[in-house]
Amino acid sequence: MGIDLEGINNEQLAAITTVVLREQRKAKKKEGDRRLRNTKMLLQNYRRLGRHIQIEPGDEELTLKYEAENGVIIRFDELNKYHAKSRALLKYLDSILAAYKDECKQGDEADWRRYQVIDKLYLSTQRFSLSEIAIFYDKDRSTIDRDKRRGIDELSVMLYGMDALNDILAKK
Fold first, then answer.
1. Which of 14, 21, 32, 78 lies most in the core, judged by the most C-beta atoms within 10 Å?
2. For the CA atoms of the chain, what is the radius of gyration?
């Protein structure tokens, strides 16, 4: 099964090709953005994931109350699977973050600041805004935002490998 190109002149074929290539680029960019957003989303929810694995499922009183109010039966085996997945993910993420920290420590001042921006925004117990971090480092907010984006890109490569690198290169 093929496409019949009879009756289509070169100009029309060029226009069709341009549209198809543009749509392919958009689809690739969207896929790449999704992966990078996942790194950002993972960092944004790092504290919540940590709390999630600290709270063990199985409080019978709360379970019975929830089931009575919502008419939904809670299956603890499913909840335990979520906890196991979260624990494994956080263990992997923590090892990546430790490696990233070591890498940044060995770099220059900007590398270390980039790690510190990620830490202050997403990892530390005290939360900081971009503006607060900019004041702390006596840098423009745009510099701190650029550090954040670059740090997320670098962590994406460490988390997702070559796929993330291809996504970053496709953005440029």
1. 32
2. 23
Instruction: Show pLDDT as tens, one digit a residue, over the chain (172 residues).
Output: 466 667 777 787 788 888 888 888 877 766 655 555 689 999 999 999 898 888 776 666 666 666 677 776 666 667 778 888 889 999 999 999 999 999 999 999 999 999 999 999 999 999 999 999 999 999 999 999 999 999 999 999 898 887 766 766 676 6
Contacts of 156 (CB under 8 A, 6+ apart): 35, 36, 39, 164, 167, 168
Report how far Cα 36 is from the mean position of its chain's Cα atoms.
5
Buried b (16+ CB within 10 A) or exposed e, 127-158: ebebeebbeebebeeebbeebbebbbbbbbbb
Using the structure block, give the residue that is written with the tokens 């019978």. 60
pTM tops 0.70, yes or no:
no
> Sign of the CA dihedral 157, 36, 110, 102?
negative
